[in-house]
């Protein structure tokens, strides 16, 4: 039977492919939120958030300024040797996301639960989608809780309520953080479809993360140097090379997330690319951008992260759908 | 509506490999049908196709009048499936495992609770309700698997190698459960490569080999068909003559008579005809030194049958 | 109380002794007239003196004797009532003087007028006696009538011309013609739209003291309000003494001047523009000056790559207290970065001061990119939907 015929049959099938989706989501979320694995990670991120925010608050109190955006400072201020909260989030988010997803499908295989679940009146579409949504919702829940905790700490420690601009920026940042997690979640889930051993899937996901964290920037630099060499030493050549390198590094979700953090949490940041001196002529430096402009600045990044998450999910979905149930 | 599962020329190919080859299977309402065959004979593939979990390459299936390829959700809502390896979420309790299944079946909470209680009662696991499944023995898991099936109150239950890996006591208990289910009027299709256990509960049996159904019938029919030459009577006589052999051939129900050597004659019969054989031998002037009989069970025939086939294949 | 009584008693005693001392020699002189001695001669250079009331009068008195030295006793024998007369010599009050023969002694007669005195001629007689003779020196003192107080103003340039922004400064001399020192209050009566100050010695004053016959130079500063219309404005300044006053009329001739301002209909000097897109903003050019502005040219300084134009570029005339609407068209550079920029807008009339204003422009990036992102996500969702159609429901 050709793939086309199969597609034809599937098209003629009755019922929604999402039957039972919410049962899967509810069960998986309950699993995530009660599993020892997640408890450990939640504790870890709670301690980091508490620690970095406390340190940031000390610094804010030490320099009593009329800063409009002290709540943003809670995320960005750091004090040696402790990195800032966004520094920690950069690797804690992928860690949590991978922990949520690396045994999604192969775990079901190994526990021999898959065929039993699929014998229920649901399509297998619901299973992977449900696991993906449950992971995403768990990430949203955990990070929302962390955000609220930070707001709470700020209210107690600083005695100032966040202004609407700060709340808006932090909500957008929360969305970005959730989808930054989402991309690693869906990658881990994809590996859990591909690899039968959860350990292999986890390792593959972490290796991918390491690749983007450590090696991709080096590789991007080398690629840019070889693809756009500086032959005559013109400014345009150097600019072209630097722009290519920037574009290449932006393939990495880490870069995207870091840039989102910079633009959203530092309202005075006007551009994430290269700025030529003449572009700053007449500019009033140090004035914050309005929120919607900061959001526009990171819009390609944010939508890119979301789209990449969805596309990776599509890939994982296709891989899972094509698999034979019998192991 | 007496035929609940009907397949017509059902074929499934994995590339060049033919897993199921033009299978025509009919399972009647309320019967226990045993699908017998060695591992790799295509039993599991057939079951998956009946459930709509795998698409047939050609041919058609009707389960309760529904087409599993078109209406898999309806089919799966009415058919319970116990896979060959029943796995549960070990960290969850029996109840939590079952409520998940109930939710997947779209049952409202109260109805689900009611059905779970009654199902656990039927499989004798009420006291394990809130224990984590990780503490369960293999037999208990198997029974929990049955409980899970009962939640959806199926019309048909399909079990894939249900007694595999169970100790004799566990297997006996399990077969008892199958009898109970049958008594409730549920149609059961079970696959096994171990005939002797299935023999006890199956109304009809299909012998499956290399994707083909070799023999189908009730245990009696099958026995009769196979047992047509299943009784072997060995007559020891010092003087084997062609007259004696001719005389023995005249005995009704004697199928085949041949001299194995000068002192032993083998009589293949469809029933125990030792008395007639002895009488005929003596009437024919033979001396009876010994009379023995091999009453071959279905099991042996089955094993022997597939052994032969293996040889042929090798 | 007791002690005061005692002091009073002592003073009475001393006066009694002094009176006796004066009486005793006089008696002696009378007893021995012209015995062995020459007549003393008393004279003064100016026997008739005119003074003002209250002034202390000093008259020189010279004493001579003829042949032999003599002690000449001196006495003010006649003095108007209330007057105090003392004869002084060598810095001391004296009653007698020793005069060498053929020489003279110089003395001073000091007279103190009583507080309340009327104008008129008074007689004072000084008598000198030797043992044998005596001589009299009459002196006539005329107390003249007191001068009445009078104030006068003097100004060189009573009419000044200037624009509404200039300060009109008049140099005025105020003189006290009288003999009394007076404190003068200064006030001005100016038309609406003027603020008048008096300055003396670098300070704002409202009153100042003037001694007798003294004159002081005061600067009168008249500051018109900017929106004053052209015209001639009279300013009257008044100096008011105790019961004398003087006033002076000054004139400020205000010439007209346009005064431009640039603003927007809602008064906010900021706007939002999108990169690479021309945005029109409404501007209002106002003339709050006292003359109409002619040929107002509008210009702007903007970052390079930007296009800033005005429609119209030149406003032919803006009447006083009138305003004209101008459309400001801003097109930031295509590669302008979002954020705040400062433009300087300038309105230059053909005559008069130009006016510039800082205009804050917030450059926004087009939301077109936002739609691209949404399309990207929509495509991703579409891929998932295709995958579901193609591979779904298994």
Automatic annotation (TrEMBL), chain A:
Keyword set includes Isomerase: no
Pfam families from the UniProt entry: ABC2_membrane_2 (PF12679)
Entry GO terms, CC: plasma membrane
Membrane-crossing residue ranges in chain numbering: 43-64, 84-105, 126-150, 170-187, 199-219, 298-320
Keyword Membrane among UniProt keywords: yes
Molecular function via GO: ABC-type transporter activity
Keywords: Membrane, Transmembrane, Transmembrane helix
Source taxon at top rank: Bacteria
The protein's name: ABC transporter permease
UniProtKB/TrEMBL annotation, chain B:
Entry GO MF terms: ATP binding; ATP hydrolysis activity
Keywords: ATP-binding, Nucleotide-binding, Transport
InterPro entries in alphabetical order: AAA+_ATPase, ABC_transporter-like_ATP-bd, P-loop_NTPase
Domain spans labelled ABC transporter: 5-235
Top-level taxon of origin: Bacteria
Family that this chain belongs to: Belongs to the ABC transporter superfamily.
UniProt protein name: ABC transporter ATP-binding protein
